[in-house]
Amino acid sequence: MSRESTIARAQSGIADGSFAAALARRVAIPSASRVAELRPELGRYLDEEMIPLFSRLGFTTRLLEHPLAPGPCLLAERIESEAFETVLQYGHGDVVAGLDGWSAGLAPFTLTERDGRWYGRGTADNKGQHSVNLAALEAVLAERGRLGFNLKYLIEMGEESGSLGLREICAEHAEALAADVLIASDGPRLALDRPTLFLGARGGVSFYIEIVARDQFQHSGNWGGILSNPGVELAHAITALIGRTGQIAIPELTPGAIPANVRAALSRLAIAPVAGDPEIEPWWGEPGLTTEEKVFGWSSFEVMEMECGNLAQPLYAIPPRARARLQLRFPVGVDVDAVVPAVRRTLTDAGFDRVVVHEPHDAVFLATRLDPDHPWARRIARSLERTAEAPPAILPNLGGSLPNDIFARDLGLPTIWVPHSYPGCLQHAPDEHLPISLAHEALGLMAGLYFDLGSAGPDPDSSSTHANRNA
Prior knowledge:
Alpha-Beta Plaits; 2 domains; 4-stranded antiparallel sheet; 19 strands
């Protein structure tokens, strides 16, 4: 039994086909949490895939439920000793809708191997990622017979629905979820070939703005030029919020400044698109910031969808209403409660008092960021570097949004995310995929990490403390 043999065992699942077989079963369960008729599949994913696996690995399991949540959460626990450190892990088994438009020969709920990639809904987000972690755990147990640390694994079935109910579940079961650290896998690496840690996530809030001018469409020949057009009004209103090159016009929606240690960490990184990725447009966004600072250290304010009239069936009539959905992603330093009031005030001051700004319509994610110098961050980074033989990229926070604030703020945990995907994975689009080479590397990284956590591998710095918190 050695670290090297454990890594080799974990990675052998690629060559012998066992990893692909497990992933294929999981992808085949259409657990799309936003599709009402597929809600029963959320429980089936836990009953048929997760609970039997955890039970075989010596975990106890129980379902945690809340009326707000579209499906149950699964808590699996393996407590080996009260003297050991306790790790909480997180993943989600729900996916976005399958969608039309997949390439010929590909289908959302069938795992297909092509050109060194596994295609299928959930391969990147998040079934493939927690499948990597579970296979690595299985390898450690097979080699060593024990983990050498306590592990609690939370599998959510509503992340793609905004993690509704997760905060309440974690509050109700806070004692059962107590741990020393959260280690989770979701989101993309900085680049396909760059193992990555991120220590938090930007917050996210979405809301609608709209103008309702009248009840009915009116013929443009009879009424054009004498009736207001809400589409024109709304387009101008948006320019009061966002400049023509994407600059945010409302100070309350930005952090105001990027902390020096965050800026220093980002200066060592580079976003490098690969074939198939869109080309970065450096003229877009906040002037004076690097590409990396725009994504990981600043806010982005986007128009996600707009509605005005009916493009599919033109009526040649002035539309009665126009609506847009806006989304703000923001780092630490933005007060999310101030966002909607600031947008309302800005529009009113600019003379757009007919625009109605609705309250957020979906779950709100708060921004989190663990200090890059935190002992747990250094410890896990050393383990990954030992396996990869190169230092991982360390992001102060992800550019996207995750329910990390529930773990960081509500449960009070240092949070470390080790993603097993990459920016071009098409995770919310047709042709979602996981590169097989990335899965192979990730299995080695996680097997090495688990081995180190339970042995005399990289230890926390003397400044860290061990909570010994086990339910």
